[in-house]
Task: inverse folding
């Protein structure tokens, strides 16, 4: 069975600090996708990134960057120069590839508070 | 930009009543999902749907739940006889291909009293 662990329940940082959100996953399959979603206080789930298990290149998008390491089964998310608008719950998720219409398996989420 | 829509945004119902939550997925998407999130907790999978039939369902999705795609645009979740523990935010999602990113609707907050 698949499992996603986000060990950090809550993180609080001061604006402009960098912050890394950890995600560790478990699966016996070799083909899968990893995701990050953001849930702001308004409650919707916003897609941030999808990563293929075959592609270990790190990705940067503006202030966001993702570090995927298969050797440690981790897919960590870093926000550089955090802003108050980054305050949200962030979910890491996994889905198997080539296994029918399987669902996203979510971690419990990390609540990030950015203080001005 | 295309988006998933859900109605109503908030539904209050009495225990034992039937509710229908409605979703309009993104128009060219083929894979549909329902998830729920009890307040402050993780997002839990309920059911996936493709080609007019259920693909997978979780243990939560018991006989009280059903899904339907009554026409080419709507995707509904019915709870036949609501219980207090059904109170949660219900999210609909859709994706273009299996394994692709799923786009979520804004959710329906269901409150069972």
Result:
């Amino acid at each position: 069975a698949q499992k996603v662990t986000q060990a950090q329940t809550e993180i609080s940082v001061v604006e402009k600090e960098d912050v890394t959100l950890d995600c560790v996953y478990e699966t016996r399959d070799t083909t899968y996708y990893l995701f990050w979603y953001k849930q702001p206080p308004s409650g919707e789930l916003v897609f941030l990134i999808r990563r293929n298990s075959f592609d270990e290149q790190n990705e940067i998008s503006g202030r966001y960057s993702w570090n995927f390491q298969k050797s440690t089964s981790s897919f960590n998310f870093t926000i550089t120069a955090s802003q108050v608008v980054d305050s949200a719950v962030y979910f890491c998720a996994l889905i198997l590839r080539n296994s029918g219409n399987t669902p996203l398996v979510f971690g419990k989420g990390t609540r990030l508070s950015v203080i001005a | 930009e295309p988006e998933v829509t859900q109605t109503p945004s908030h539904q209050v119902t009495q225990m034992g009543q039937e509710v229908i939550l409605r979703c309009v997925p993104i128009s060219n998407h083929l894979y549909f999902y329902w998830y729920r999130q009890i307040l402050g907790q993780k997002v839990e999978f309920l059911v996936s749907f493709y080609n007019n039939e259920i693909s997978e369902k979780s243990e939560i999705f018991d006989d009280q739940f059903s899904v339907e795609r009554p026409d080419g645009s709507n995707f509904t979740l019915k709870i036949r006889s609501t219980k207090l523990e059904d109170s949660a935010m219900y999210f609909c999602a859709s994706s273009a291909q299996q394994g692709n990113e799923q786009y979520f609707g804004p959710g329906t907050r269901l409150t069972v009293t």
